[in-house]
Every structure is written in C-alpha cells, then in structure tokens.
C-alpha cells in the first residue's frame, strides 16, 4: 500500500475487510494451534519460572509513529521532523512509497502465527534512523563554475570489525583499519562521483589509479565541453585537488608556498573552493552518523551498500532542499546575470554523438589518456586561471 499522509492501520469503517482480518487473526492465534497441536497443561516444578513473551504492540507503534510525524496535525513540527529524519516529509514519503512498492521485504506481511508484522512506514523509519544515528535496530524500537566540474578528495571510514587476517592491508597511518571513499562534490554539496571500498593503507594516488572517475572520458561517453580562460580555449573539464594529485590537465592544485601576489590570491581562492568536497564529507557524516562512527559490520559488501545508500539519500536531500540554501538567491542571480556572457559551453546546445562501447581503436584510447594526463595543458590552464583570477579579484578589485 502506498503512503499518502494517511495511516495504514485503518479502522473498520475505512477498511471493509477490517472485521474479516480481526476474525482471521483471532482464529489463527487462539483456535488454530489447539486444532492441530492439542496439548495438555505442562507440569512445572515449584521453582520454575514461566517466561513472559514481550508484546511489541506493532499496531500501537505504527499509530504512535503516524500521529507523531505524519498526521495532518503531527505532534512534532516540520523542523523537528527534518532534524530527526534528515529530510523533509514529502521526500521521505516518496522514497518510502517506491521502496515498499518494489521490495517485498519492506511490505507489511503476516508471520507464521498469522499476525501482521511491521508496516512499511515502521520499517523505512527504522532504516533511516539507523543511517541517521548509527544505531542498532533495537535502539530504535520505539517506532519500528568555469570549466570546473568540482573538487575531488578521499575520506576514511574506520572498520572496527575488520577480519584479523585483513587488518594489515586495511590499516592506515592512524593504525586503525579503514575503507576509503573517493568523491567529487560541487558547491551545493551534491556528490557527483563516488568510489568506495579501497583499503585504508592506500593513499589518494593509489585510489585514483583504481578509480573509474575518468572512465567516461576515456571511453568516449562523456559529453564534449569547451570553455575559454584568458583568451585560450580548452576542451576538457578539471577538478580542484590538493597537492598529492599529479599535474594532469584535469587537476588544478593550489600553491603550498606561493611567491607572488597572484599565486597567493589564487591559492587562497582555490583552497576556499576546494573545501566543497570536505564540507560534503562533513555534512554526510553529520547527517548519517552510521558513516561517522566506526563500522561494526563484518562484510565489505554491506559497508559498500550502506555508503551507497547514504550518498543517494544525501543527494536526494540536496536536490530537494537546494532552493532553501542561504546562498540560493545569490547563486541563482549570479547564474542568470552570467548566462549572457558565459564562456563555458557544452557544445552550444547542438546534438552530439558519443560512443557507448569500447574505443574504436587502441590509438583513440591512448590519445585520450595522453590528453588527460598532459602536464603541458595543466601548466597552461593553471597560468590562465591565475591570470583570470587576478584580473577579476586582484589589485583594486580584491
């Protein structure tokens, strides 16, 4: 059943089959066991204790959850909902409806005793609370800019229960086993690319050489892009990075020891913008505590699924709330004013064709690799960016 701001635990008036369901529940629970498995009273010793089975009151839990957060006049405000669910209510309901519709596990079913299990609302709430707070299931039992593509960097996620035989391979400089996430993020904190499950003993270069970040470019699937800086034309986008990345045409680093005023200004602005990916990591960990705390899972595939789910939810939240950002009006006005004089264009709106399979020849692949890793283009682009940055922000304009 899809969820549209109405309780799935319907009354008899709203659900014509409610009385039949209650009769079936009563028959299966009280009469069916005695019909097929008649048993007399069990003899117990005087000192024996009778175990008491806890009744979880799933229906009551569903109703309380619905009244607290999803009713027309919920107990908790929209602000409290956003803080606890990490997203707004319509987005959560949209995600839940799609998941319940396509995943049998999340649908409400009867158990072997004929009793209704947890509702889809309870299951999805438990899942999002586990991701948001990094808690075990029992702990939430109460409810059951110009040519630049973005900034690239890596983040470590500590793996507490890493198998002992693998610990040396996954142990980084901190002395703790971890897994590495490589990501590309823009100023809206949207994560455009992610690559996870590399052992923590690797550095950023090791991750880069195994990353698929340039696969679309090398196989010809990436759309063409052309932009001009300081009067020179370039046809390949670039990422802002820290100093460990190589001098490729697709990477622009700052200066660790700038000598000139132009270099100092460029280094400050590059470092300021490059922090977008670090901010994205911080927001991802703040939003989903499960990736901030040491992971307790043993299976590497499970960790990958958790990270992927958190990134997908993070991007959905960014897309849903982008218009609420403090700088949204400023950014929108900047893009509108700059639209007429924009020098970075993606083939000027003309249709383009790209290859969806392997390169036509090995020479085409080698040519793309050479262009992507060209240090000459890297230095030329960096000098043009320094000059452009100085003309726009340096001197009297700073």
Give the SSE map.
Elements: H1 18-36, H2 58-69, H3 78-85, H4 89-102, H5 120-133, E1 148-158, H6 167-170, E2 178-185, E3 191-199, H7 204-210, H8 215-218, E4 227-229, E5 232-234, E6 238-240, E7 251-252, H9 261-287, H10 300-321, H11 328-338, H12 362-372, H13 375-393
Parallel strand pairs: 1-6, 6-7
Antiparallel strand pairs: 1-2, 2-3, 4-5
Protein name: DDE Tnp4 domain-containing protein
Description:
The chain has helices at 18-36, 58-69, 78-85, 89-102, 120-133, 167-170, 204-210, 215-218, 261-287, 300-321, 328-338, 362-372, 375-393; strands at 148-158, 178-185, 191-199, 227-229, 232-234, 238-240, 251-252. It is an alpha/beta fold and 398 residues long. It folds into two domains: 18-140, no CATH class; 148-397, no CATH class. The strands form two sheets. The protein has a five-stranded mixed sheet with strand order 3-2-1-6-7, with helices on both faces. A two-stranded antiparallel sheet has the order 4-5. α9 crosses α13. The longest helix has 27 residues, at 261-287. The protein starts with 17 loop residues before the first helix and ends in a 5-residue tail after the last helix.
